[in-house]
Amino acid sequence: MTTGFHTTTFDTPDARAAAAALPVGERQWMVKRLLVGYPTFRRLLDNIQRLHRPVEGGTHDTGVIGGVLALPRSGKSFACESYWRRNPVRITEGGECHPVVYLQVRDDWTPHHMAEAIYFATGAKSIPRLKTSAMITGAIRRLLEARTELVIVDDAHFAFLGTKGRTLSNYRSIIKGIADTNACNVLLSGLPDLRAFVEADSQIQGRGDFPCWHIEPLRWGMADEREQFSLLLHAIDRRLPFRDLSGLASPRNATHFHRISQGVIGRVMNVVRDAANRAIDAGSSMILEEHLQEAADCRATPGQDFRPFRDK
Q1: Distance, CA of 241 to CA of 254 (rounded, Å)
Q2: Residue 291, Cβ neighbours under 10 Å: how many?
Q3: Local structure of 90: helix, strand or coil
Q4: Nearest to 115 by CA among 171, 164, 180, 168
Q5: Whole-angstrom Cα distance, residue 265 to residue 243?
Q6: Do the Cβ atoms of 168 and 174 come closer than 8 Å?
Q7: Is the dihedral of CA 167, 168, 169, 170 positive or negative?
Q8: Is the pLDDT of residue 1 over 60?
Q9: If pLDDT is split at 50, 70 and 90, which confidence band does 100 have?
Q10: What's the rounded Cα separation, in Å, for the pair 272 and 277?
Q11: By C-alpha distance, which of 214, 298, 216 is closest to 264?
């Protein structure tokens, strides 16, 4: 099992025992791809849905460029990928239909790479050998042929922030070209600084005035967000493939998790995954305090005076 997400809860002793008895590799996958649909996550999916299909039961929208903005490890990529997986390829009389196309930009990409990624994301088995401008034109045509309704460009800051000259011009040509087909919408997912770039680019902002949604860290000082953070930890615990619950949401553990993550869920999961792998490797029935300590210790910064899961 290498794709999708793990969302199943193990809420009975028998279910937990069965999960704990699975092969180690499958348990690792469950930990790595664990997904909890907490309120912030669900709201983000609803907003992506609104950009895609603004009226329930209606048609998809076209010609608008929107955004999802968040700090690293805030869960935006999980949300974008999850939405893509909820809209799989359909086989129709007219051939394959790719309603949602998901692209995750890498920092070493060029516009040519992005165009190639569109080809592959729309089912191409091979890539034509063309110059960049022709590749961009062909990629946009592929989206039309695949009847794509929404293109999600994840980690879009790698394409636009700090990029200059012809490279930036070609990236802009791809995004504007897709919107200008008036056949689908575009969602740019990236760091908060991406908004300033869009607002300075009238050609991109003009495609819908950039409706965007922010993912904010959960704040410990706000009672409702503190409760949501603790409930999220418990929901994670219920999905871990161990015979016993690990007590991640205990008052002490929740405090320590928030201190080291500052309410950013991806940073919580970094520690949980590491600690869970250590517990699986040790044959433990749950994540123990020592596993949390070890996972936190190796992430400590030089001179850090607070030791998570050790100090009061």
Answers
A1: 20
A2: 24
A3: strand
A4: 171
A5: 24
A6: no
A7: positive
A8: no
A9: very high
A10: 8
A11: 216
Which residue bears the tokens 């850090």? 304
Nearest to 213 by CA among 9, 40, 56, 26: 40
> What is the C-alpha separation between 170 and 157, in angstroms, rounded?
15
Global pTM value: 0.86
CA distance 214 to 197: 16
Least Cα distance to 184 among 45, 60, 58, 57 occurs for: 60
d(C-alpha 74, C-alpha 62), whole Å: 28
Q: Which two tokens stand for residue 289?
A: 């305090």
User: What is the spatial distance between Cα 276 and Cα 279, in angstroms, rounded to a whole number?
Assistant: 5
Q: Can you say whether residue 37 is alpha, beta or left, with left for phi > 0 and alpha for psi between -120 and 50 degrees?
A: beta
Contact 255/230 with Cβ under 8 angstroms?
no
* CB 194, CB 70: distance < 8 Å: no
Identity at 276, one-letter amino acid code: A
Domain boundaries, the chain: 13-33+218-297, 39-215
Q: Which class does domain 39-215 fall in?
A: alpha beta
Q: Are 104 and 154 in contact (CB under 8 A)?
A: yes
For 213, the enclosing helix (H) or strand (E) is strand 212-215
Residues constituting the chain: 312
What is the three-class DSSP state of 251? helix
If you average pLDDT over every residue of the chain, what do you get?
Answer: 94
Residue type, position 121, single letter: A
pLDDT digits (tens, 9 = 90+) for 158-183: 999 988 999 999 999 999 999 999 99
